């Protein structure tokens, strides 16, 4: 199994006024291609910091982070922006679509920053929307879509650049149970197609759909176990 | 190019969302630019009027006037005694290398009669050079000739105002008019000249040969004396040199020395008028400066709204950064928005300013002048205001920490 992500003794120290807060106390793990990982832990356990580091939004104080073999910790702002653009796909808890913007335009956004020509952008955005089951809703504005649909648009946006990994931060946090199952089914489907997914969640029910559980407490990993028999997410109705 | 176009589209959308806010923000720039355009137009109109008047008098002019003399402790005023002569004028022309033309003149006034019309006007005795010095073309007929002067001919040139009052629309050339009861033939009609900066009508004038004026019309006590000598220097560069030469020559001719005061004055007409032109330019610059204060105030309004906009869209900025926007992408986006606001405001302001200047010209009757230059500068300035006042908010947006921005509620 090819290694996609590798963290070696990653530390992150924040200065909150006078106080030094050690958010990550030397975290090491690696994620192989095609894994579906749940990062779990209570709030303040360091899982969000770990996620921000994985997402190249934050750089470690010490330690190494290799993304597909590239050392990321020493890159400049612009280089990190390029990595986020080409190799990573983000899905956030609050959907985080641009308001007053159509589904297609939201999905096109990473391609805009990737300097992809307009015609090609359009085509790839439509493909990505089809992949998350939203064909026919390209022209809908964010506020005309349900929560589940908005999260699908966000997933399409994360997919559109064919990233190495999809990072999902509490992707079901704002969804009801039924929609949660729908979104998890979509993630499982994408994972089956070979996409690596790392997801932060504090809900064991949601983590049960993944193949590996990494649990954080006080800035360190307390357990890292494979989940050999993930629950299969079966949507109760057809895709909304 | 793609990114600039993208930023423009994003900016247009952002402005469309807050139409009212965008309009109110633009209003500051609109008023500022309109005020600058209108004020500069009024100032430029005034200075153009003055410079037109200056060139209507003639260029590079010196005027020699008889001076005052002291007699028994009383200083009589300038021109109280006749000290300049026709020979002085001839000598100036012949001996001063920087002088192009010298035109002596005597001046009087009196009634002029043609048929049943009469008009009282200024009568100037001149030589043919006068029209050269004044750069005054003849509309119809001919100029006076040296032979008219030599023979003290009873020929005359009349100005437009005189022609109108005596002849109406009829052709005056060849008609006999009576100046102070003496018959003169009108041989030429002078072109329209307009007012002096002091508001005198230059067209209300009759030119007769200087010899005729001296001997027959004005009856001077000193037959050879002249009232003034108008001198044109060969060029603007030698104007002050000409002034020195003329002064020196006249000092010699008038035997000015320890026992005799200078009995003439040399005035530099062009210089005097240039001063008034200068003051009107300063005036228009001041008007423009005052108006541009409102432009600065407008710019501060832009900055204010852009800062609000950055705060409002913190989350949006976070999303954009997370999916790969570079700092300069974010910066460009907000700068474009600010510049779009100010240039749109600038365009509207230019139109309003031109309309305002036209309104002033129509209602108050002041001359206004809107030049392409002013419009171009105003437009560039409005864009500049956008860049200047948009820079800080844009930099603030670009410097946002994406983690905080994403968490911003």
TrEMBL record, chain B:
GO terms for cellular component: plasma membrane. The chain crosses the membrane at residues 21-46, 285-310, 331-364, 370-392. Its main location: membrane. The keyword Cell membrane applies. The keyword Transmembrane helix applies. It is found in: Cell membrane. InterPro entries: ABC3_permease_C, MacB_PCD, Macrolide_Exporter_MacB. Signal peptide: none annotated. Residues 23-248 form the MacB-like periplasmic core domain. Keywords: Cell membrane, Membrane, Transmembrane, Transmembrane helix. GO terms for molecular function: transmembrane transporter activity. It comes from the Bacteria. Belongs to the ABC-4 integral membrane protein family. This is ABC transporter permease.
């Amino acid at each position: 199994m090819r290694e996609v992500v590798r963290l070696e003794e990653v530390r992150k120290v924040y200065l909150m006024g006078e106080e030094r807060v050690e958010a990550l106390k030397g975290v090491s793990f690696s994620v192989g291609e095609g894994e579906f990982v749940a990062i779990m832990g209570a709030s303040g356990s360091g899982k969000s910091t770990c996620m921000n580091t994985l997402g190249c939004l934050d750089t470690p104080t010490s330690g190494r982070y290799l993304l597909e073999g590239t050392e990321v910790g020493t890159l400049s702002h612009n280089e990190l922006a390029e990595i986020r653009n080409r190799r990573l796909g983000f899905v956030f808890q609050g959907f985080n679509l641009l308001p007053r913007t159509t589904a297609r335009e939201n999905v096109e956004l990473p391609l805009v920053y990737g300097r992809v020509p307009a015609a090609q952008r359009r085509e790839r955005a439509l493909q990505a929307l089809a992949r998350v089951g939203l064909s026919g809703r390209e022209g809908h504005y964010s506020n005309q879509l349900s929560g589940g649909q908005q999260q699908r648009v966000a997933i399409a946006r994360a997919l559109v650049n064919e990233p190495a990994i999809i990072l999902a931060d509490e992707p079901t946090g704002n969804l009801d149970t039924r929609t949660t199952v729908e979104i998890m089914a979509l993630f499982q489907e994408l994972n089956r197609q070979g996409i690596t997914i790392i997801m932060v969640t504090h809900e064991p029910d949601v983590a049960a759909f993944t193949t590996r559980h990494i649990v954080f407490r006080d800035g360190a990993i307390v357990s890292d176990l494979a989940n050999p028999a993930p629950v299969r997410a079966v949507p109760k109705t057809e895709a909304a | 190019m793609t990114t600039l176009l993208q930023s423009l589209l994003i900016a247009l959308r952002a402005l469309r969302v807050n139409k009212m806010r965008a309009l109110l923000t633009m209003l500051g720039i609109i008023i500022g630019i309109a005020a600058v355009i209108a004020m500069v137009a009024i100032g430029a109109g005034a200075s153009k009027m003055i410079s037109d008047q200056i060139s209507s008098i003639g260029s590079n002019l010196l005027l020699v006037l008889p001076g005052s003399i002291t007699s028994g402790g009383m200083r009589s005023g300038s021109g109280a005694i006749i000290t300049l002569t026709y020979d002085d004028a001839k000598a100036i022309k012949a001996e001063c290398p920087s002088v192009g033309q010298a035109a002596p003149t005597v001046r009087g006034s009196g009634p002029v009669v043609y048929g049943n019309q009469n008009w009282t006007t200024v009568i100037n005795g001149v030589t043919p050079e006068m029209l050269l010095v004044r750069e005054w073309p003849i509309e119809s007929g001919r100029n006076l000739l040296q032979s008219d002067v030599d023979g003290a001919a009873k020929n005359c040139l009349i100005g437009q105002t005189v022609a109108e009052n005596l002849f109406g629309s009829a052709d005056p050339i060849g008609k006999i008019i009576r100046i102070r009861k003496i018959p003169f033939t009108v041989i030429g009609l002078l072109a329209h000249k307009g007012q002096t900066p002091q508001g005198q009508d230059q067209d209300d004038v009759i030119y007769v040969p200087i010899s005729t004026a001296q001997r027959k019309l004005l009856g001077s006590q000193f037959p050879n004396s002249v009232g003034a000598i108008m001198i044109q220097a060969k060029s603007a560069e030698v104007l002050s040199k000409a002034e020195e030469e003329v002064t020196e020559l006249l000092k010699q001719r008038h035997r000015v020395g320890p026992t005799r005061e200078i009995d003439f004055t040399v005035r530099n007409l062009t210089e005097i008028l240039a001063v008034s032109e200068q003051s009107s330019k300063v005036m228009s610059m001041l008007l423009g400066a005052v108006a541009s204060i409102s432009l600065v105030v407008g710019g501060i309004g832009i900055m204010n709204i852009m800062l609000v906009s950055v705060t409002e869209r913190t989350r949006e900025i976070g999303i954009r950064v997370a999916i790969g926007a570079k700092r300069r992408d974010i910066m460009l986006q907000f700068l474009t928005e600010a510049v779009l606001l100010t240039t749109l405001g600038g365009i509207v302001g230019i139109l309003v300013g031109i309309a305002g200047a036209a309104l002033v010209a129509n209602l108050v009757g002041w001359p206004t002048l809107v030049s392409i230059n002013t419009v171009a500068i105003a437009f560039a300035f409005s864009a500049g205001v956008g860049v200047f006042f948009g820079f800080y908010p844009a930099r603030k947006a670009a410097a946002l920490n994406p983690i905080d921005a994403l968490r911003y509620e």
